[in-house]
Amino acid sequence: MSGRRSEGEDRGDIGRTASDPLVEALTGELAGPDGLLATTGTPGVALVVVDGGQTVVARGWGRAPGGPPLDIDTVLQVGSVSKPVAAITAFLAADAGSVDLDDPIDDVLRPVVEIDAAAGPVTPRDLLTHSAGASVSGFLGYGADEPVPDLAGVLRGEGNSEPVALTADRSFRYSGGGYAALEHVLVEATGEALADLALRLLVRPLGLDRTGFSIEPPGWPGGATISPGSVDGQPLDGGWRRHPETAAAGLWSTAGDLARLVAELTAGRLSSVLPRMLEHSSSAPADDGIDRHVGTGWFLDRPDDPQWFWHNGRNLGFSAEVVASVDGARVVVACTNALEGPAVIAGILDLVARDRGWGDGPRW
Predict the structure, then answer these.
(1) pTM to 2 decimals?
(2) Who's near 147: CB < 8 A, 6+ residues apart?
(3) Is residue 7 predicted with pLDDT exceeding 50?
């Protein structure tokens, strides 16, 4: 494929989809003065839908604030969708012999993280499954004019978040702080920043050429369209927040790259990783009434024999979600440039599941 891509195309493996009736239904739901984009103040959404193993939607609606239309190659922050990608990187580092996910790491963490004396040994797997008793659920990031601490400073509470601590309570406790601690462990074990480690083990081998862990958008060869974020329909001051805790919230990616990652997990070069990520760790109710069955990096639809895995993410100015069946036959990847994006994504999931006859799922 050469020349300028038309709407509904991607870089080769996701083809034209404009003729699918689902696109027309989504346009009716999303576009226009009464559509979800306008009523929620969301400038745009990029979407990939796979059904029956075939891509049926691969396009965007709306625009970057003050910029070009969104498509599946537009780069955005994806919030906590960073976590499963960091978890995949950790598995690949373990497969390479750089880290043991079941070795105690207390000595590695103690210089930067307070550990309760009654907590007992902590392992990388505990951090990956939110069962290390880690504090700090999430991070606000830093504005363009604010000083940005390094990762150790974040863990010590030297920025705009509390210090990360590990308590003796090993029940499920969703924690961005735990993933920041995991990032520190990976850096210490490999001698590489997470951005470089993921580039070497994951991003470059899979050709995810608009994906990377970074405080600022990485510089991609050939350039890339990067969308600023928005809040209440207004562009976010400075475009985006800066996240030094990149494993927890600092991934930049596209709907197209995330869809390719799911394809590699379910039936490609990462198919040996996915079963380990689907191992059930715990279950816990959440504020939205949806039980969280916790795997390793992903949430699951049920504790035994899961059929779906998923994760959502929300940074100031951005929202994203990945939902996929374990066999890869049904996938939704949605990325928005708005804090209010979850309402748009929920509407998309409901419409797609109803239109395609997917029955009950973990997010609809």
Answers:
(1) 0.94
(2) none
(3) no
